[in-house]
Fold:
Amino acid sequence: MPSAQSASVSFAVAVGSRDEVDGHHGSTHFLEHLLFKGTKSRSALDIAVAFDSVGGASNASTGKEHTSYYARVQDKAIPVAVQVIADMLTSSVIDPVEFENERTVILEELAMNDDDPQDVAHEEFFEAVLGAHPLGRPIGGTPDTIKAVSRDAVWQHYQKNYRPQDLVVTAAGGVDHNELLQLVTENLELAGWDLNLTATPRAWRNQGAVSLDVAPTVKVINRPIAQANIVLGSQGLVAGDDRRYAMAILNTVLGGGMSSRLFQEIREKRGLAYSVYSFNQGYSDAAAFGLYAGCSPQKAPEVIRLMLAELEKVAADGITEAELDLAKGNISGGLALKFESTQARMSRLGGAELTDGEFIDLDESLARYSAVNLSDVQALASLMSSSAKSFIAVGDVKESLFDEFV
Structure:
């Protein structure tokens, strides 16, 4: 990005919550926290000061299939970002005192998440749809697993999974490729990493969808709160599925924005909910497709009927040419806006390598969206509509709420 005077840099490791040893769930997220707590040559304060002194912003995120450490800095501070993040990834010490302190921090984080009924509903939905598959587990683990996990177990997880062949480094903005390559190489080799290995981030993950024999689930978590948080749906399309472009259009038309069918029917016309949307969360070999709404418990039955009815309408009648054009324009414009952001470009580059083992440029992506036709969208809607569904609700409702739908 020639005009940019800043850059976003990411070091992403192909290890996520799905890769954890049974009984140690949450270790990957725990480790992400701990890598900011000091290395052989830097204290936690040193790491913070390194970024603060150049006006940079650093952070990290743990996903189900990879963990990313990233920073946004002024272009001349790129060496600082590379040096510090490389040091964190290769030379963490996981101090026992810091480990115990961070355990309490993560327990507070889990408690905070548990206080968010929408978050709880989505976590329960993924577990219901994906069953025993590792992708169905919560990224942060549970209070029980975090209380039980030892420093040695997390250290072993670190030593086993943070390795050069599973690392993807991406950057966007005011950055020169060759200079970045030299910086990364120097800093990783200085730490003793062998960079002559062939890069195979978790064997390129994308092996296609696995067959999951999971019975539909109905679950209500009763809480004395003002809204019922409802998620319903089934298994969806994995990240590498060729139909993902049609799925993006289906989601845009069905529940992707203010002009979507769910938003118009449930919020605008009837005032039954504030938040309502559809989604497909696809990973390398499993995925979930769902509809969400938050509404008063009394309105929940009507909202569920409308959600299912809108999906069934698209399955039976398809979408209109005007809706197809709107969705394509929405996606095209959204991608163009994202390409103005160094962080969005950085993330897109890394995600492509980690998930698909290839990068699809903007023009090719737009061409694939453009090629989607009405029958493609209707076929997907029919598949999602006819699939056996799980129903999750968190709020002041009874399990009998779903009796008429299962």
